[in-house]
Design a protein that fits this description.
Blueprint: H1 7-11, H2 18-40, H3 46-53, H4 60-85, H5 87-104, H6 111-140, H7 143-149, H8 153-169
Helix pairs in contact: 2-6, 2-8, 4-5, 4-6, 5-6
Length: about 170
């Protein structure tokens, strides 16, 4: 069974200095943008992938969106794990797994294995989303500023990434 943090340990964390807060904010915002990249990078090159891998077009939507379903299902679970183990202990491995599963798509020629990698990429993306939003909320903001500004960074970062990533990806 996973150890559970006491509620008092959450509220007694050391506040982050204003100069470090900006660095943490930028890093977490960049990590949050990865969740948008998961679909935005594949979609522009998908027609070429279908021709190259010669798979049935009826499965095209499944391959493009498999990560989204996996991410939606894994984010709440990863949030619970991040609360119990620590947000950085979830974020760092999730970033590593995101890199491995994301790059593996370039080398896989089997549809089933590619679909499995996309699902695992979604799970890693769920870990990134849960841990980065948790860190952003607990480390960068306190009190009323947390409540007032918590909704701004993740949606703005995701919206910006959803515009820039497809353009940069081709």
């Amino acid at each position: 069974m996973l150890p559970v943090k006491k509620a008092s340990s959450i509220s007694t964390h050391q506040p982050v200095s204003p100069s470090n807060r900006v660095h943490i904010f930028i890093i977490l915002l960049a990590a949050g943008c990865l969740t948008t990249m998961t679909g935005g990078v594949v979609s522009p090159v998908f027609p070429e992938m279908m021709q190259e891998l010669r798979f049935d077009p009826k499965w095209a939507g499944m391959l493009v969106s498999a990560h989204a379903l996996a991410s939606a299902l894994s984010t709440p679970v990863m949030g619970i794990v991040a609360d119990r183990l620590g947000k950085l202990r979830v974020l760092i491995p999730a970033l590593g797994l995101y890199a491995v599963f994301g790059m593996s798509g370039a080398f896989i020629t089997n549809f089933s294995l590619l679909l499995a990698m996309r699902v695992l990429l979604g799970v890693a993306s769920g870990g990134i989303a849960a841990a980065s939003i948790g860190l952003l909320g607990w480390r960068c903001m306190t009190g009323r500023s947390r409540v007032a500004h918590f909704g701004i960074p993740p949606p703005s970062g995701m919206t910006t990434a959803s515009i820039i990533i497809p353009v940069g990806g081709g």
